[in-house]
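note to self — DONT lose this again. spent like an hour looking for the file last time. sequence + predicted structure for the chain T wanted, 393 res
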Amino acid sequence: MKNQDLTSWKVEDFILDESFQRWTFETTSEESDFWQKFLSDHPTCAPVIQEAQNYLHALKKTYSPVSTEVKKSIWRSIQKQRRHVLRLNIITRAAAVFLMLIVAGSAWFYFGRSSNLQNFIAKEHPSSFTETSIIFADGHKLPIQGKCGEINYRNQGKKIIINRHKAAKQLLPQKRSLNQVIVPFGKQVRIKLPDGTRMWVNAGSKVIYPVPFKTKKREIYLEGEAYFEVAHNPRAPFHVRTQQMNLRIIGTKFDVKAYPSDTVSYTVLMEGSLALKSSQNLFAPETILKPNQLAQFTTESRHPELLQVNVEDYLDWKSGHLTFKDDSLEEVIRRIERYYNIHILLDNEIKQLNITGKLELTETPGPILQGLAIITGIEYKQNNEAYELKKPK
């Protein structure tokens, strides 16, 4: 095992490896030094390793371990059944048997909060920040001032231009290190990554990526919302991972919205090609998205729902607008709260009112909320920084 190239391993390879299993469940295992060093040397393998660990933990409390040969036999059976016409139903059953037999216990989170990967992810939530910030691998934080900041990586990430004039240097180790950008509510940031990919990151979001990217794979992790214009490089596909979705891109323009607090996550494709699958279903087939299509997951679903949409409606936030089509007032208010970093008290009786239209995001939230109240016939009150919408008496 230690002479193999583990960087090419997939989730199932780690799941089947007994050394990896021992490291996952035994804090004093002899393999601990090896796997910790591997993570340190190859931080971009962290999502795959965490995915394997989470699946192992997901079943430990219920099922007993079985021999490696049995696991491999089941896995070969699953792979063989993929070639059959009726593969979906067969794979579902076979995969369930396979996962039940492996070992493992706790809920699915893409970067587990109690895992060995905490060194790679800051504990801070966007709500605890007042300025957009870059957090480097050594824990150093660089604040980025302004409502809409800019980050431009130069020289493979060794030099960073902030807001077009302020330069910062990043001392990169011999191996790749992770950077993460945290965008608080009320802020946005534009990022140009070392490979030329551009990101527009919305309020209340967190994005994590290696600097520089690996030569054969570019991968980031997102919580929140971001629009991407991916630099074309067919030899190094671009991957975006969220708690609900795994996306694989070659060169394209698309938006991803995946806030942990929302019940629905989605990606919408403007141009290019994009393949996605559920982060929570190891054996789910990829779904190919075409331009002007939206794929969405709910917290309960493991397969995406595809919709034909007007893409521009989902990108308006970049230019200071919000477009809604039969969205609940509760969802409208949630997005307004994120944009302005405010709290709005909303009467339960009016949360499900349907809203259709476009809102121009003004300097202050008052005019928008007043307009919503007039259109919907509800009551709006403001007392200093306190905002309230309620059913009229």
